[in-house]
Design brief:
single chain; alpha/beta; Glutaredoxin; 6 helices; 8 strands; 37% helix
């Protein structure tokens, strides 16, 4: 029995020793870069409330990416776009990344929110509805992917970027997040 307790204690101790920043993230976003034969990874969240929690805790701003599950005709295009910046670690170390699907059909945690949207009073019943409404209300855009920055109070700042393969545009976008 003592041996079992010792082994269990050792396992718990070892599992608590992993302090890698990757472990706190709930989601890993990847794409395969054919030119370098590398899988590029970004770590973040698919939940804005969780992202705000960690952004407050780490005193960081949030890099939002609005996209959708149905936009996966080219898997990883959001991450391919961000990689054009040239320093994925700098992005990861300075921002909390959040990927929000505007077509997420899961029931929202709070379905009582009623807003005037598309010419009528509506309840935002799904997570996707809430994400899409937030995108349109805050950034006046409805396109995917859409890259933008917010602070922990959900105030927008910096440039906004749609899908791009232009390195200069991506660098200008990311740098606008650093200039807050």
């Amino acid at each position: 029995m003592k041996a079992l307790l010792a082994i269990f204690s050792f396992i718990v101790f070892i599992s608590c020793q992993n302090t890698s920043s990757e472990t706190k993230y709930s989601d890993v976003f990847t794409y395969f870069d054919k030119s370098s034969n590398d899988t590029i990874k970004f770590y973040g969240y698919k939940n804005l409330d969780t992202a705000i929690y960690y952004a407050k805790k780490e005193d960081k701003d949030i890099l939002l990416i609005f996209s959708g599950y149905a936009c996966m005709s080219m898997p990883g295009r959001e991450w391919q776009t961000l990689s054009l910046y040239g320093d994925n670690n700098k992005i990861q170390n300075n921002f909390i990344i959040t990927w929000l699907a505007v077509d997420d059909k899961n029931i929202a945690a709070d379905t009582s929110q009623s807003v005037f949207w598309y010419g009528e009073q509506r309840k935002l019943l799904s997570v996707g509805d809430q994400n899409k409404y937030f995108e349109e209300k805050t950034f006046n855009k409805s396109t995917q992917p859409l890259f933008c920055f917010i602070d922990t109070a959900k105030n927008a700042f910096g440039k906004i970027l749609g899908y791009s393969r232009n390195e200069k545009d991506v660098k200008a976008f990311v740098n606008s997040g650093f200039k807050k």
